[in-house]
Amino acid sequence: MRPSASLGAGRTAAIVTGRTAAIVSFFRPRTRLQTMSLTLYEKVGCPYCAKVKGKLDELGLEYDSKLVPASRAERDEVVAVSGQAGVPVLVDPEHGVEGMAESADIVAYLEATYGDGATA
Ligand SMILES: N[C@@H](CCC(=O)N[C@@H](CS)C(=O)NCC(=O)O)C(=O)O
Fold it and tell me: By alpha-carbon position, which residue is closest to atom 11 of ligand 1?
């Protein structure tokens, strides 16, 4: 008797189902279609920015990176979009996000908007 012959029908079905699910998952797009680009204001060596970039990469999202000046006094552009000088700040015109600050909020937003369970 071959080893596989000793498996019950249910077990065999589970294996087939598991493989099918894996194949379906492989071909399913990881991300939703982006028609307008995301912009991330960031600073070199910024750990909060790295956290957001990790999420963008995980979700396979393309984005434009804008490095802010080291001096807070010179960050006119990021202040104009977000009302404050800290980074990271995300802009997502497609969803009306003009300048979202706070890395935790940005990560949660990206997951909710572009993650597997996205409804937006
Ligand atoms: N709670 C904020 C902290 C962000 C933060 O402290 N960012 C730093 C850069 S890593 C910053 O903007 N510092 C002010 C500065 O660069 O002058 C977040 O999680 O986004």
Answer: 86
Confidence grade of residue 88 (pLDDT, cut at 50, 70, 90) = very high
Amino acid sitting at position 19: R
The pLDDT tens digits for 24-73 are 555 555 556 666 799 999 999 999 999 999 999 999 999 999 999 999 99
Closest C-alpha residue for ligand 1 atom 14? 86
Which atom from ligand 1 is nearest to the alpha carbon of 43? 9
Measured in angstroms, how far is the CA atom of residue 48 from the centroid of ligand 1?
Answer: 7
User: Residue 6 pLDDT more than 50?
Assistant: no
Q: What is the pTM of this model?
A: 0.75
Alpha carbon distance 82, 10 (integer Å): 56
**What residue ranges line ligand 1, CB within 6 angstroms?**
43, 46-48, 72, 86-88, 102-104
- Is the peptide bond preceding residue 88 cis, with omega within 30 degrees of 0? yes
